[in-house]
Design brief:
Alpha-D-Glucose-1,6-Bisphosphate, Chain A, domain 4, 1 helix, 6-stranded antiparallel β-sheet, alpha+beta, 6 strands
């Protein structure tokens, strides 16, 4: 899954900010737009899909102080056309990849 932000940088992060992406799913080029619906640094943010792909996509990332550093948690609530069968066959692995990416990146940066 290739996923690229197509917005001029820097992006001013705030509630209501819109972020556009280009991606490929199963080789099909798509566009994606998300809106920041909660912005509470340094504790959390929420982005929700506004265009393309899913019936519902709500992504929340939280940050919690811990004695050894910071705990970063990602959660995604999503729904797809076609229900569970389509989700299992075509979507689940991509969502797992999306969730694994920040953990991998944070590991590269901090460890």
């Amino acid at each position: 899954m290739s996923f690229f932000m197509v917005m001029p940088k820097p992006i001013e992060m705030c509630v209501g900010a819109l972020i556009d992406y280009k991606l490929r799913v199963l080789g099909i080029p798509l566009r994606w737009r998300s809106e920041i619906t909660a912005w509470q640094p340094p504790f959390r943010f929420v982005d929700e899909q506004r265009r393309e792909l899913y019936c519902q996509w709500i992504h929340e990332q939280t940050f919690e102080a811990h004695k050894d550093g910071t705990i970063c948690r990602d959660s995604i609530r999503y729904a797809v056309l076609g229900g569970r069968i389509i989700e299992r066959l075509f979507v689940r692995n991509d969502v797992k990849t999306i969730l694994d990416f920040p953990q991998k990146k944070l590991g590269e940066i901090f460890w």
